[in-house]
Amino acid sequence: MRFAVALVTFVTFVTLAGHATGAEFEASGYHEQHCTRCHGSEVYTRDNRRVQSYHALQAQVARCDANLAMGLFPEDLNALVEHLNTRYYRFDK
Ligand code: HEC
Description:
Elements: H1 2-22, H2 27-35, H3 42-45, H4 54-68, H5 74-89
Bound molecules: heme C.
């Protein structure tokens, strides 16, 4: 029993430590690696692009991320949204 508790504590620690390093989530690199599987960045700049507000961008990134099932943390998603907004969309918040 004590071993089980120790194991759970250990696993929790490793998970949290993993997340701590995950805090250095790099939106640009992640985007290059995972988000260009179905579409390139041209969908962000095309004339008839669908996303028309910061809120819609958050929603779209969440939808697309769900397809990838990478289990991103909310702050990583935010970093991705920020990245796309700074680089392509330039919405006011
Ligand atoms: C499983 C395939 C798939 C993956 C992977 C994917 N997307 Fe998408 N994404 C789509 C489709 C389909 C559309 C709609 C394209 C269209 O309307 O022509 C889209 C559209 C978008 C748009 C809206 C473009 C516009 O018209 O303004 C954004 C923003 C976007 N994706 C971001 C992302 C991000 C960020 C990732 C990585 C987390 C990602 N996508 C990964 C399928 C995907």
